[in-house]
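Hi there,

I know you've been waiting on this one. I reran it after we fixed the sequence typo, so this is the corrected version. Both the input and the resulting structure follow.
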Amino acid sequence: MKYCKLLLFISSLLLIGWTNLILTAQAATAVGVTDIVLHRKNENQAATGTKYLVYDATNLYQEWLLTGRTPDTDGNLVTVGNSGDRKKDQKALVTHWHNFNRKKALAFASKHLSLAAGGELQLNSEGTARLTLQNVKDGKNAAYLLLETSSLNTKVQSAPLMLVMPILNDFNEPQTEVDLYPKEADYQRDPYFYKFSKNLDGTEAPLAGAEFVLYRFENGQRFYLTEQQTAEENHWRTSGNPLSDTSLKKYQSATNGLVLTDQLRLSAGTYYFEEVKTASGYEINQASKAIKVVIPESWDQSVTIADQEMEERVAGSIPSNVQKLQRPRVYNQQSSNENNRGRLPNALGYESSYPSSTTRARGNTTSSRRLPSTGEAKMTISFIGFLIVMMIIMIWKKRITGGDGNEKNN
């Protein structure tokens, strides 16, 4: 019995030692460094001189591991990646930060995060920069947030880049050297907004089918964007009738009200959208003829549409939170004239093909060449019948009285 206890004790020590050896070996795979090679080009040209700040986001990452929550663009904690699949959830976290508004990401990082060692990068003449990152900090897997702060190219900047260490290959093995190609955020050159209706009953809805042209002022004269626009250059010309001028570039609101200007890439300055056509039953007000667009000189200042801040686009896509809020918005008022009263606007802003009872009643009083409805026909027949009966009674009474008012004696 004594030997059995001794054997059991020795076995336990061996098991604990073996377990510690396995854990140590696993930690050893994560301990170490990863060499990062950052590649950045603008329109196939090396982005020489572009600068990045590298923030230590380890605590941010560890907090997400514990709670599954991380800040959104407004600083509120939101749940990101709750599928239970660690690899899939980490990808969701990285994507969440890639889609972050750069201005807000920089404000958040400068307030809540500290710069990592060697935390400022500048791209060389080849458009590359190297940095070495620790895989583990204070015994925990590290994470880093890379933010572009300045660029010689004012048109396109890269989106925030979250790195979770160690970076694994397809075989789940830590990589010692990684090439990174950041996504581009092109928001400053491709303005967008949502067209909405304000209906007579007080409701609002996306307005589809409205058409817009874009213009700018040169020496006090309007110049409109033409269809000759290319990825390299925009062409502008004057026009006496923007609505019918087929040489001008037209933008139309979609079913969700979105007016999108893909691949426009405006330089810094002030521009205006002019609504030249709207959905039936709605009015083009003066504000819709001069929807102001301000493209700032610096990326850390937001584009504004009708004095509303526009969220930046990432890799050409509008962020999901913006798609839910549908902002910035520009409104059209539903027409209040006699011809449009009583019509039922649908979600797209068009008049219903079925007029309301009020509309039918008004239409019946103004139309002179039409067939009477069934109810009207019945009323007309009844009235004629009543007149005939009254005439018969009067004739019969006259015959009885002999026409002198006194009844005849038989």
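Quick highlight: Residues 31-185 form a domain with the Immunoglobulin-like fold (CATH 2.60.40.10).

Best,
R. S.
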